[in-house]
Amino acid sequence: MVAIQIKEIKTFMTKLLSSSLFDFFLVKEAQINTYNNFYIEGHTNRDFFTKEELEDPATILHEYSLWQAIKPILFQIIKGKKVPSLLKITLLLPPEKLSLLSSSFEKQELSSFLKYFVLTIKYDSQGLTLTTGTAFTTFVADKTADTVWDHEFPKFLSENAIDYDL
């Protein structure tokens, strides 16, 4: 796990909310405190979809909603003259998507118990901090997945001109 302090908050937020850079991530949850406190729980509600939609190969449903689908909603809540007093977003990257972060990524033998690479984005009066983590289906003593994620995500930020301090 690494904590990353973003130096240029406006640049990062523009890339998060107005570009496709993070669109392949899944949203576990989001909390935005503005004039009200908003909370989004990212689990996909399969009961919302018809049987035909669920059987259609074009309908790709993940356990959680894609950032691409949730970000316009968050943008509507955030936009305005005042910044939120708190913004906390937990994004998930399925292990099979790790190669999207770095073209130099070499296949690592990651645990079969690895479920997600986790990215927590937190903005408050202290600034904007990103924290990496991993989610497993069971306890795993091997920290290889953590090491890979802790190495690859900062490279992703650098490759996309996002200035940070570890």
Q: What's this, in brief?
A:
The protein is of the alpha+beta class and 166 residues long. The protein is built from four helices and eight strands, in the order E-H-E-E-H-E-H-E-E-E-H-E.
Describe this structure in words.
There is one protein chain. This protein has one domain. It is built from four helices and eight strands; from the N terminus they run E-H-E-E-H-E-H-E-E-E-H-E. It has helices at about 10-20, 50-55, 65-80, 145-160, and strands at about 5, 25-35, 35-40, 65, 85-95, 115-125, 125-135, 165. Strands 1, 2, 3, 4, 5, 6, 7 and 8 form an eight-stranded antiparallel beta sheet that branches. The longest helix is centred in the C-terminal third of the chain and has 16 residues, at about 145-160. It is globular and about 45 Å long. The mean pLDDT is about 90.
Overall helicity: 25-40%
Mean pLDDT: 92
Count of β-strands: 8
Total count of domains: 1
Q: Layout of helices and strands, plus pairs?
A:
Blueprint: E1 3-6, H1 9-18, E2 26-33, E3 37-41, H2 51-55, E4 65-66, H3 67-78, E5 86-93, E6 114-124, E7 127-136, H4 144-159, E8 164-165
Antiparallel strand pairs: 1-7, 1-8, 2-3, 2-4, 2-5, 5-6, 6-7
Task: Name the features.
single chain, 166 residues, alpha+beta, eight-stranded antiparallel β-sheet, 4 helices, 26% helix, 30% strand, globular
